[in-house]
Amino acid sequence: MRKKQVVVRRSSVGSAEPMSSTSSLAFRYGECRKNHAASLGGYAVDGCREFMASGEEGTSDALNCAACGCHRNFHRREVKMAEIVYEYTSPNYGGK
Fold first, then answer.
1. What sequence ranges are listed for the domain ZF-HD dimerization-type (predicted)?
2. Which of 6, 16, 22, 32 is the most exposed place for a label (fewest CB within 10 A)?
């Protein structure tokens, strides 16, 4: 097996903006993971499958989900794209 090193250029970690010439990551927010039964010692989620912003971009309502009312941070963040800047494979790794 060969050792592989990959360098990925990233934009700011909290950014949820689409891909542009300066950023190389885009995010999509999936299902809600807020545990509504945490105070009772249990586990129950509301079943919201995807984050939908309540308001326009740049407003505080844009951070709340229209479907479940939770903050965007409770939704699972998925990276859509990444630009590989440099890839290196060592020719001598693991060779016996």
1. 29-78
2. 22
What is the structure's pLDDT at 54? Answer: 94
Q: What is the pLDDT of residues 17-35, one digit of tens each?
A: 444 444 456 788 999 999 9
Dist CA 10 CA 43 (whole Å): 34
Round to whole Å and give the CA distance between 47 and 76.
13
**Extended strands (E) in 19-89:** 26-32, 75-81, 83-89
Which tokens in the block code for residue 24? 């190389």
| Closest-CA residue to 71 (of 44, 49, 51, 50) | 51
Q: Answer yes or no: pTM beyond 0.90.
A: no
